[in-house]
């Protein structure tokens, strides 16, 4: 198979879909790997590292899209990239279609087959291709939230750990999955007073067993969220209903009950955001103010630490990328129902129910797509 990896073009996105190590393994499996010139530079991988791994360098994204059977990326294809996708081509990347009708329309029109990293599952009920980036975004969230709390950035002027004689920042983390757990660990490590809220009692039992003493847990009822929001210096949004648009857990009205200059960090923004007033921002201009509350809503947070993120993502995607290349997508998905859960689009039809429900579009069952 010809595997193509273009340079990411989303603003301030420095990750790359394939590391030289991933390219080396694909070449060892007998595949041709095409990398766009300079694609890895932002993550610290120069063209020579890919050539050394046996890959070939192509001058433009156009060459990559024209020649490759499978495109391996990081972020959802941007409008210009969507125009280059073609019928029968396989796209393997993050998509986050539920809040993105424009991208969905273009992918359906292209006739491509698209497997979304964020909906591939594992045997433990986890999301193995989302997890590494959730670990990164979770660990970054208190760091960017602390920056947002600084006065010069519009924040309340509160230090996460306080100082002797002055109490710490109060941090509420909504959603205690991968993002929430890593965010809580780091915020607690910075000395903040942290509470994690979730709707899953087994998850809260786990968090209490492992982290009791470092941070507290509370059930994520509307009442508890409203009460804690009043006291919070920082709220980190980390909920997920896989594939679906995020539920709105703090309304615009509630902002007036919060402390002026408090920080909302909405990590769930890539699924539409879990605060009513959230809208996606970029690393170039990450924070905005609504009613005196500072919102940080960057949809590709891991891009800020591109080298760590690229290597972590590559470790997770490599076995799936190799299975898709070795067997073709149909056989690979037939052999692995968890990979089939990643199928979102095939030959002009949506194949993921939560996305169809969010966008009001009919869905072809992925099992039927395999037979088409
Ligand atoms: N902005 C960015 O750069 C990035 C965003 N993300 C996003 O972060 C979000 C969280 O991802 P993960 O932690 O990996 O998911 P996860 O599935 O590990 O955790 C989500 C948690 O939310 C909980 N939850 C669901 N509905 C809830 C509700 N109404 N109230 C409270 N808790 C609720 C679930 O019980 C679960 O424990 C996703 O939307 C993901 O796409 C992930 C990585 C990077
Ligand atoms: C999860 C995701 O969308 C990202 O890492 O950018
Ligand atoms: Mg994202």
Word description of this protein:
It is an enzyme of class 1 (oxidoreductase). Residues 149-297 form the Alanine dehydrogenase/pyridine nucleotide transhydrogenase NAD(H)-binding domain. Its EC number is 1.4.1.1. The protein has two domains: 2-119 and 306-371, NAD(P)-binding Rossmann-like Domain (Rossmann fold, 3-Layer(aba) Sandwich); 131-299, 3-Layer(aba) Sandwich (Rossmann fold). With 372 residues, it is an alpha/beta fold. An eight-stranded mixed beta sheet has the order 3-2-1-4-5-6-14-15, sandwiched between helices. It contains 15 helices and 15 strands. The mean pLDDT is 97. Helices cover 37% and strands 16% of the residues.
In short:
By secondary structure, this protein is α/β, with parallel strands linked by helices.
Q: Report the mean per-residue pLDDT as an integer.
A: 97
Total helical segments: 15
Radius of gyration: 21 Å
Return the CATH architecture of the largest domain: 3-Layer(aba) Sandwich
List how many beta strands DSSP finds: 15
Outline the low-pLDDT stretches.
none
What ligands can be seen in this structure? 1,4-dihydronicotinamide adenine dinucleotide, pyruvic acid, magnesium ion
Strand content: 15-25%
CATH level 1 name of the largest domain:
Alpha Beta
Using the alpha-carbon principal axes, give the shape.
Answer: globular
The percent range for helix content is 25-40%
User: Could you give the order of strands across the largest sheet?
Assistant: 3-2-1-4-5-6-14-15
CATH topology name of the largest domain, in short, is Rossmann fold
The secondary-structure class comes to alpha/beta
